[in-house]
Amino acid sequence: MRALVFDQKLSFDPAYPEPVPGPGEALVRVLKAGICNTDLEIVQGYMGFKGILGHEFVGLVQGGEWDGKRVAGEINLACGNCETCHQGISTQCPNRATLGIFNHNGAFADYLTLPQANLRLLPDEISDEQAVFIEPLAAALQILHMTHISPHHRVVVLGAGKLGLLAAQVIALQGCHLSVVVHHLHQNELLSEWGIDVAVFESIEPKSIDVVVDCTGTEEGFADALTLVRPRGIIHLKSTYHAKPVADMTRVVVDEVTVTSSRCGPFDAAIRLLKRYLIEVEPLIDARYSLDHGLDAMVKAGQKGVLKVLLEMG
Amino acid sequence: MRALVFDQKLSFDPAYPEPVPGPGEALVRVLKAGICNTDLEIVQGYMGFKGILGHEFVGLVQGGEWDGKRVAGEINLACGNCETCHQGISTQCPNRATLGIFNHNGAFADYLTLPQANLRLLPDEISDEQAVFIEPLAAALQILHMTHISPHHRVVVLGAGKLGLLAAQVIALQGCHLSVVVHHLHQNELLSEWGIDVAVFESIEPKSIDVVVDCTGTEEGFADALTLVRPRGIIHLKSTYHAKPVADMTRVVVDEVTVTSSRCGPFDAAIRLLKRYLIEVEPLIDARYSLDHGLDAMVKAGQKGVLKVLLEMG
Lengths: 314, 314
Description:
CATH architecture of the largest domain in chain A: Alpha-Beta Complex
Strand content of chain A: 25-35%
Largest sheet of chain A: 7 strands, mixed
Largest interface: A-B, 27 and 27 residues
Oligomer: homodimer
Helix content of chain A: 25-40%
Number of strands of chain A: 19
Number of helices of chain A: 10
Order of helices and strands of chain A: EEEHEEEEHEEEEHHEHEHEEHEHEHEHE
Number of domains of chain A: 2
């Protein structure tokens, strides 16, 4: 099968061996997949991963009880037997593999395998392209699990990239006073169409914000968040950093700031919101490439200001 | 002016004295007002109130800086000088009066007065009829301030009356797994149109629900909530009871259940969600009456299964 493989360098392999599902696993034919910043970071050495990239996908189950069904899939392959799994926090299982990120081949290929329990059936209301966004939308929703955002709160989202635009949309559903700090005109227009306020960083009063969500993925993002957050406020980190951000932790302590963060989130909730069309994902798609041109797609996805790039297997 | 007045019994007065705004107060010509369950309870003796009923309204400011502007108004008249006000919790001020509920004449009249600080300007996107729902929608949003509802949660709303239908809509925006227990066919249809699940009480597994929101206003509501809530779960009370509900508090303690509640909420958040049309309120209007027929309107509003009844001053 065709596959986009990283092993010290990224290459397109037209004849990679098809995966064979293990016990309890399903074989899935991938229809479409999305390129995430994590994929770009892996290519720069993050996680030391070797294998097929990709963890945002929609596909069709091949064989078994769900033969032919259209699915998305949770990306963490938990052991199910450790204390963390027994507490129901399988996304944090210390023995886990992660689709296309750690110890398990990913979705930038014609086929992938996942435990049957990771698969989620998709309702007809959700298109294939929308379905590719279930994984990142679930990650955006996890912000709301880890941090209580009240309708009374003043909230700022820093960074309006792929994840920032999803985060902004789910936070706006809370009714809270939300501003998004944006650096690109296109994102500015999108947010305005959605009725979400756009702000210039300098226009926001320092120490005035209840919850600052940092989606910048940069060291400066954390420093900016510290500037804006009110005493006893919350900074929620929604970025992976491939460099270690150096933070003024004294300010954090003196102002009793809480720093929270989140990673993978609830697929079911993402499906419910997409099904009701409460989150708009189509305008986030900047380009579509055949898997054959996956290398070009990765280059495109890495360009400044580019939002979601999709890979099409069909 | 015309007014619907309660003093031991409810009467329509065609020549009630017009109110005179005090220092810092604005005079407002009422355009439309909504009848709330609280109004029905006051007529049955709740709060021992005497005066003009009504606290859900849209109106036009008469005179002053905002002359001619269209407004809604927060209903709590706080003293601004006590410890509770200094903590920013003016809705809980122990010295407060409350529009049409306690010590301050309400909105079922041609004119009312409110402190200028209580008024909220309305954007053009919000119609007069929508604006009448800002107060109850704010109250529904206060659920989310007092109780953290995560996208992972299983939530049940008991009771789909006027407030229950607003509560269901704001909770559904969280993406959580929500079911609403409904007793009337009309509400059932509305919820289904919105894509919100309807459930029969008996079909829900006992002790399985993370957050149960009781909007029934009945003693049975609390008992039902206790049946459904999981150990360490939350019961959120969103009802005023004119009888004292007798509750099995032993179950609460044994299962470490948290009981929270909420009353008035954030007008700004309600305005933001209505402006983006994320909450649909028009289908909740069951009847419209001229203020002249206010007594009939109150009878209608008290009938079983009837949702919002509006009074029109025009």
